[in-house]
Amino acid sequence: MPESVKSIGDEAFSRCENLREIEIKGPISEIPRCAFWGCRRLRSVSLSHLTQTTIRLIDYCAFAFCKSLEAFTLPAACQEIGEAAFRDCVAWQRATLPAKLRKIHRKAFSGCSVFLESKAKNFAIIDDMLIQSDQKRLLYCPTSKTHALIPPGVLTIADEAFRNCAQLESINLPDGLVEIGRDAFSGSALRSVSLPPSVRTLSHAFRDCKQLERARLPRDLRILGPRAFSGCTALTTINLSDTLQDVGEGAFEQCSALTNLNLPPTLLIIREYAFSHCSMTQKNQPVRQNPTHLRPCLRKQRLGRNQPAP
């Protein structure tokens, strides 16, 4: 791409599946939305010295699903990396966050294997994990990680931070952790998880963790959000909190190994498909029920999504 090119349009090279290498020489200010989305054979993107000093933004899904991308250096002038910018760049091995970087949007490195270093003052790398220091957010972990010790002080695990960490078998969550984002551990190899009492709500977090066998919820958890454990086909043991009031839509959907469950007396609502396609033979009901909420939902949850009501 010659020096005369001063901008690239959205989706300019999207799904150019035979594109393998590209060199950008011009003074472009950004790599725009979905510019190279789905270029699955793209291996190398090189930037001239001039381009390194002018690119300030790598936008939404710019390199998402570039599964062969191995060689790319984040430009020195880059200040912002957009949502899912490098999603599923599984061949990318190493990169350095530049000193001028100010903002990384959610899911920027979701499903990546890249090991990061950081020159940016607001972002730290601790035990290979990317931490946004000023907000105490854990943003990303490489998919090859086998064990994770979340450092004290982290308040939030961001959306998809550990997504597709297919070798991650154990994790230690710190006291004080407040929020676990959507699909934070989706597709990981966790076998058990114990959530600290500081976690107040939970949804989608452990979806499709196929090897998860045991889970302990926070003792003060009142709302178990939608799809929190859906698709956890090995889940046999779940300790529900004594304060739980609401089980969200599809919370345990397709947990086919879950056969026994004690529902606490505080429970008021079981939402649609909460236990759909489970194998429960015993479900101990709460002593105190709200028939208006509970009984219709129990009827709905016995039906599969594709089964008509009688």
Give a brief outline of the structure:
By secondary structure, the protein is mainly beta. It contains 2 helices and 25 strands.
How would you describe this structure in keywords?
310 residues, mainly beta, Leucine-rich repeat, LRR (right-handed beta-alpha superhelix), 5-stranded mixed β-sheet, 4-stranded parallel β-sheet, 5% helix, disordered C terminus
Q: Could you describe the 3D structure shown?
A:
By secondary structure, the chain is mainly beta. It has a domain of 121 residues: Leucine-rich repeat, LRR (right-handed beta-alpha superhelix) (Alpha-Beta Horseshoe). The protein contains 2 helices and 25 strands. The chain is elongated and about 70 Å long. The C terminus is likely disordered.
How many DSSP helices?
2
The percentage of residues in β strands lies in 15-25%
Structural class: mainly beta
Helix content: under 10%
- Number of E-type strands: 25
At CATH level 2, the architecture of the domain at 1-121 is Alpha-Beta Horseshoe
Spell out the helices and strands N to C. EEEHEEEEEEEEEEEEEEEEEEEEEEH
**Residue-averaged pLDDT:** 90
